[in-house]
Amino acid sequence: MLRPLSVWSWASVQCLLLQSLINLSASDPSNIDVFSQVGQEVMLPCHCRSTIDPAKASKHPYLWWETPMESVFELEGPLRFEAPKYRGRVDVRLQGFEEEGNCSLLLRAVRFSDAGLYESFVQAGGRRRRFVRSVELNVRDHKDSKTLAEGERLHLKLHTTQDVTVVFRGKDGKAGEIWRRWGEGEGKAVGGRQGRLVEREGALILSEVKLEDSGTYRVLDPQGLAVSTLLLTVEPEAEPMQPAERHQDARDAHSSAGRASSTSPIISVLMLFSYFCLKL
């Protein structure tokens, strides 16, 4: 027979259960998958309302966002830390964090190198540092296709402010670099497209496209990864109709109308004849 628990034992069990409930409400250990494309901004969700008690906290709560390799972002009141590779690209709203427990991390201008596991931790009211959320960031490239007529303009979005190289592969299978931007300053056209390529408002513009411009365009980041892939098809411009051809078309249309009008009385006579035959 099981012996009844003592009063002290029951109190201990209740304390353990209460602590477990607090820990569960303070954090959700399950992973969250978040997806973003290169160049966009993404929110890594996090909420720790039950962890932060402003009435008991003797100072501002402390927030960490980390990857397995480094600290990404830290926040304590007006003080903040941003890792060099994330500088100017990460943020957490202080008011939303301290008043509502919203510790979501905003990440701007996403790069392929940003992909991976992110974890958040909070320390408040003299408590030990607590784990809050684990987020897996997945980064994808851009894919698109366009069809243009000869003489039109191609707008190729670069999707990133990083150094980039644009590579073109024609329908004949030959590939080569056509434009690059490395370091400070403007980009430079390479190959036979000088004078037709210009960078403007985050896009590479190719003016007066030709049939031989049909093919695949890839924007590559400094690591050689494809930020975007665009399949371009250039169609021949429709030739304007010559005056003689227009006159011939008009004559053909008039002749067809004349033949139709001349045959219509014959059809009427035949229909009338058939009617009387049926009456007999």
UniProtKB/TrEMBL annotation:
UniProt record, GO biological process: cell surface receptor signaling pathway; cellular response to lipopolysaccharide; immune response; negative regulation of T cell proliferation; positive regulation of T cell proliferation; T cell costimulation
Residues of the signal peptide: 1-27
Topological category with respect to the lipid bilayer: Single-pass type I membrane protein
Immunoglobulin domain residues: 31-140, 143-235
Database matches in Gene3D superfamilies: Immunoglobulins
Region (Disordered): 239-260
SMART domains found in the cross-reference section: IG
Family matches, as InterPro entries: Ig-like_dom_sf (IPR036179), Ig-like_fold (IPR013783), Ig_sub (IPR003599), T-cell_Activation_Regulation (IPR051713)
Keyword Metal-binding belongs to the record: no
Cellular location(s): Cell membrane
Biased composition (Basic and acidic residues): 244-254
Major location (coarse): membrane
Keyword terms, alphabetized: Cell membrane, Disulfide bond, Glycoprotein, Immunoglobulin domain, Membrane, Receptor, Signal, Transmembrane, Transmembrane helix
GO cellular component: external side of plasma membrane
Protein origin, superkingdom: Eukaryota
Descriptive protein name: Immunoglobulin domain-containing protein
Species name: Conger conger (Conger eel)
Upper lineage: Eukaryota, Metazoa, Chordata, Craniata, Vertebrata
